[in-house]
Amino acid sequence: MTTSTLSDKSSLLTVSKADDTLESHCEDHTHRILAMRDAMDVLGGKWRLPIVGILNFKGKMRFTDILRSVQGIGAKMLSKELQDLEANQLLTRTVKQTKPITVEYEITEYGKTLLTLINEIVNWGLNHREKIMRSEK
Predict the structure, then answer these.
(1) In the 3-class helix/strand/coil scheme, how is the chain assigned residue by residue?
(2) pTM of the predicted structure, to 2 decimals
(3) Consecutive sets of 10 residues in the chain, 137 residues long: mean pLDDT of each?
């Protein structure tokens, strides 16, 4: 049996390669939990999904427009989150040689694969809010 190691900034994940099919790895709950943790490392936190969501819904946006659209986020935090999302290939940053220089952010095709997940989270949030509001009466 061979072992390969996938590393990211925060942790190491060791995957046993008894056979080469992804399904056999994912059937094991440990690997599914690790995959969920990997997803949460990329998408977790207060700001990442709202940023990805706003870019998915509105298309290309400049930094200031994103800052205005994501209520409560500061410029420094937005800058950090945009860098992380770009590093994870969920969005692209394009510098236009205008005067003054314009920087636009856009969701990538890979980032668009999150749209179904975002819509499910929105639907769950709407249902949850309604359930909680009903139970408070």
Answers:
(1) CEEEEEECCCCEEEEEECCCCHHHHHHCHHHHHHHHHHHHHHHCCCCHHHHHHHHHHHCCEEHHHHHHHCCCCCHHHHHHHHHHHHHCCCEEEEEECCCCCEEEEEECHHHHCCHHHHHHHHHHHHHHHHHHHHHHC
(2) 0.72
(3) 36 43 64 89 92 93 96 96 96 93 95 92 94 86
